[in-house]
Amino acid sequence: MASGIHDHAALWQQVKQGDRTAFDQVYHLYAAPIFSMVYKHIRSRADAGDITQEVFMDLWDKKADITIQSSLFNYLYSIARNRTLRYIKRNAARPESLDLLQELLNEQGMPLVFQEAYSASVIRTMESSVANEIAGLPAQMKKVYHLNQEAGMSVPEIAELLLISPNTVKNHLSKVRKRLRQAVSRLTFLFFMFFIVLLTAARWLVI
Which residues form the RNA polymerase sigma-70 region domain (predicted)? Predict the structure, then answer.
């Protein structure tokens, strides 16, 4: 094992000196596990591939300025993890974003009691925000939403009941969904930033 570590350290030194063949060896050694980690969290092969490529392009482009304190793999893993977090931030409006954050909480070793408090706080705040957003809807839009979501009525049934056109019903539902997505997106971003602060404070993001 010690020999392997020294070999990889020597390989990194060759990369720092601009040896493209050595860089290709680094890529073949580490690209697959880095991709697997990223894909596990974002569940998109295309985007996981892009993030993996970005990690290695940065490694090559900034090789002269990079100082690695532990191992090359740990460095690449940390950079990939940070890029994964940024990816989740950019896609915060997507429903699965909170699930991805929960997985990262688990992976980074945040104590269960904090995970549970964090998750409960997210759920309570999301529910409250959605309820407030719905309460503030125009009367007809709110009625359309309740008939669709709570009574389970279809667009034609709602149109017939309220004596409005099906297109009006569709427009109302589309606007409600957009408003709710925006509300959830704003909150997800705030919780994401809080999550980053927790990780940073605990030195989980230190390379």
Answer: 27-92
